[in-house]
Design brief:
The protein is mostly helical and about 210 residues long. It has a domain of about 140 residues. It has eight helices and five strands; from the N terminus they run H-H-H-H-H-H-E-E-E-E-E-H-H. The chain has a three-stranded antiparallel sheet. The two termini are about 25 Å apart.
């Protein structure tokens, strides 16, 4: 079963992705943008079948977070590649990327991904029929980050916000490069293929 709860947002992001892709030519630009769309599609790879093990479902939720976490880095990479366009107006693009990167929804995804990558395992489990990710803390430079327990419903809400903000960044980029490159439907119709999500450590499960 494919999770379809964010199909409307993903389809809008796909339309914005295809629009922007039609203005790009350079392989580095295209690869960065394709990576953005692969990240945006992460919710569609979420495992929701009840007959799957708790471990599989929790790991899938973690993978979705790790996938979406990549959007800011990829959009920033694309932004750097677009600097070579003489007429590229970056002000609105920088504002849109900054808004995404500072949003609480993205910050939670960022904190979780960094915590499991650099510090320790974070407890995951299920309670009252809903998956959850436990509270955690970790030190980021001189700042101690603390996040309270979140349910899968909370996290899907964060995913929705991140996808919508990513769409806004892509739209701002399309407007910025429209005066530099003519739209070419040949490039826009090449869809990104799924790429493996980052491995997420899951050591056991906690049903309570």
């Amino acid at each position: 079963m494919i999770f379809a709860g964010l199909d409307r947002e993903v389809e809008q992001a796909r339309a914005d992705y295809l629009e922007l892709r039609g203005y790009l030519r350079d392989e580095e630009e295209l690869n960065a943008l394709d990576g953005v769309y692969n990240a945006v599609k992460s919710p569609r790879r979420l495992l929701v079948e009840r007959d799957l093990s708790l471990e599989q479902r929790c790991e899938s939720l973690s993978d979705m977070i790790a996938g979406l976490h990549r959007v800011v880095e990829l959009l920033s990479t694309l932004r750097r590649h677009l600097r070579k366009r003489i007429a590229f107006n970056a002000a609105t693009v920088d504002l849109a990327i900054g808004t995404l990167g500072r949003d609480p929804a993205f910050l939670y995804l960022n904190h979780f991904t960094n915590a499991i990558k650099h510090t320790r395992y974070i407890k995951r489990g299920e309670k009252d029929g809903m998956l959850y990710i436990g509270e955690f803390s970790y030190k980021d430079r001189d700042l101690v980050v603390h996040e309270v327990r979140r349910t899968s419903e909370d996290i899907i809400g964060y995913a929705q916000k991140v996808i919508c903000l990513t769409s806004k960044v892509m739209t701002s980029m399309s407007k910025a490069v429209a005066s530099v490159e003519a739209f070419d439907s040949k490039f826009s119709q090449v869809c990104a293929t799924p790429s493996p999500e980052p491995d997420v450590d899951l050591e056991g499960e906690d049903p309570h």
